[in-house]
Amino acid sequence: MSKEHHYKITIQWTGNQGTGTSGYKDYERSHSISVDNKAAIEGSSDPAFRGDKTKHNPEELFLSSLSSCHMLWYLHFCSEAGIIVTDYTDQATGIMAETATGSGHFTEATLHPRVIVTEESMVQKAKELHKKASEFCFIANSVNFPVKHIPTVEAK
């Protein structure tokens, strides 16, 4: 039996400088992303699109969703397999191609998880579980471009 999960967020544009969208350069792209009972995230567009470089942009948040979803599934499968992970860091990268019309789309994302496990005997299985995590990641399963993985696993 399949289940549906529903999500709700609120986006509030905070970039009105007094004249609304009267001109392309007359408004800020700033906005707030909120979810009930959670800290707000201050967002903007990418600086290439007149955004505030000190705030998160949708492309970064999208890449973060891919990375964190993969990590959470990975840690779950390691826990089930008896692999003790003591540290996990991912420096994910993504490529977005802008089209001649000004629209765009992601063409790929690459996760670079660096994992530390407690024993050398866990390293090989820990590497293999990245494939399973990729197969289960809700976000990766929702995109139409490749999500690559270049994991590093070591014992300490």
TrEMBL record:
Signal sequence interval, chain numbering: none
Family annotation (Pfam families): OsmC (PF02566)
InterPro entries (alphabetical): KH_dom-like_a/b, OsmC/Ohr_fam, OsmC/Ohrsf, OsmC_Ohr_Peroxiredoxin
The protein, known as: Peroxiredoxin
